[in-house]
Amino acid sequence: MLHATVAPAQSAVRIRADNDAYNFWQPPWDRPDEEYSNGVRVSSDFRGPALWSALAPRWLGRRDTSRANEQRVSSSWTLGQDMFTASRRISDPIAPAGARPNAGVLWVQNAERRVSSDRMTEGSVTIGVTGEPSLASSVQRIVHGYTAAWQRPIDWSHQVPFEPLVNVAYDEHRRVAVRAMHLQPHAGVSLGNLLTEARAGVGMHTGWNMTHPWMPAAAVQDYEVAVIADATLRAVAWNGTLSGNLFRPSARMTLRPLVPELQFGVSVRARRATISYLVHQRGAEYLGRSRAHWWSQIQTQWQFAR
User: Fold this and answer.
1) Strand partners, 170
2) Helix count and strand count (H, E) for the chain
3) Which residue, of 116, 135, 194, 222, has the fewest CB within 10 Å?
4) Would residue 218 be called left, alpha or beta, if left means φ above 0 and alpha means ψ between -120 and 50 degrees?
5) 66/51: higher pLDDT
6) How far apart are the C-alpha atoms of 199 and 235, rounded to whole Å?
7) Rounded CA separation 17/40 (Å)
């Protein structure tokens, strides 16, 4: 367990929005609005361990005790909502037979991150709900009402029903510095009725006036521009938005066991404010779909003083 004398990580607040409407290289009327069609996250970081940290296995809390590789610990709370919709014709609110069910997930997550100069680990516990209590159908109807000229009408009568969700996850990142580039091999696992999978990949972080990708700096430049890329392969055993409910009958899609995902983008920081834009390409996740899905992410962050 980490002692209170260890230097704390900086705190931050973040707002993130995911949507295929942010595929700005496509005309507004030609953006897909399908599969993972919308996600919102509001996060706040805090100094010190997560609430569940004392109950975690000891290997989650192992650390390098050398002064040269001092480890820091922080935790975060995140409230999020995700929406998934079937592919359909532009003017038809009802998806064709055999399409994936619509799905909404409303969730809250408590995560703990431990970082040193060359290693970052993160564990998290997530609870949430699917179905009508996720509010996905209500939110989408409201938003589409303001953008009716560009958005497809969607019938939410066929969606993954209500079920409570519990998930735990663990990820580990390493850092290898190659001149001005940080390579970040990573691996992780999730277990629960929202998502059960193993994953592995490698990320890349480079740019101008670069600081460490995850360690807080004693003094930082007034600005920073970073180019970000990542390639991850996911081995998926269960996906609650496609596999359906675990404890009651519901529509089920046959999952593809391996799903690749690519992302690339740019992050710009001015003093303590950061904005980033990332483009994701996720491979086909189930039988009946053969093409990848493109969606984009916009995130803003405010970093507080140490």
Assistant:
1) 123, 189
2) 2, 13
3) 222
4) alpha
5) 51
6) 6
7) 5
Please check whether residue 81 is in contact with residue 139, taking contact to mean a CB–CB distance below 8 angstroms: yes
This prediction has a pTM of: 0.87
Token pair, residue 111, equals 């995560």
* DSSP secondary structure string for all residues of 185-220: EEEEEEEESSEEEEEEEEEEEEEES---SSSPPSS-
Q: How far is CA 27 from CA 23, 58, 112, 240, in A?
A: 9, 51, 40, 32
Q: Which two tokens stand for residue 143?
A: 């938003």
- The larger pLDDT score, comparing residue 48 to residue 41, is at 41
Q: Are 134 and 81 in contact (CB under 8 A)?
A: yes
User: In Å, how far are 5, 177, 274 from 295, measured between CA atoms?
Assistant: 42, 29, 21
96 pLDDT above the threshold of 90: no
Residue 161, φ and ψ in degrees, nearest 5: -70, 175
Q: What are phi and psi of 177, to 5 degrees?
A: -85, 125
Most distant CA pair in the chain: distance in Å?
A: 63
Average pLDDT over residues 266-293: 94
**Measuring CA to CA, how many Å separate 133 from each of 103, 105, 107, 130, 219?**
11, 9, 11, 7, 45
Neighbours of 163 (CB within 10 A): 19
pLDDT in the model for residue 104:
95
228: closest CA among 200, 266, 262, 260? Answer: 266
Distance of CA 196 to the CA centre of its chain: 15
Q: Which of 226, 231, 222, 123 has the alpha carbon at shortest distance from 182?
A: 226
Amino acid at 165: L
Nearest to 71 by CA among 90, 88, 49: 49
Buried b / exposed e over 247-260, threshold 16 CB at 10 Å, is: eeebbebebbeebe
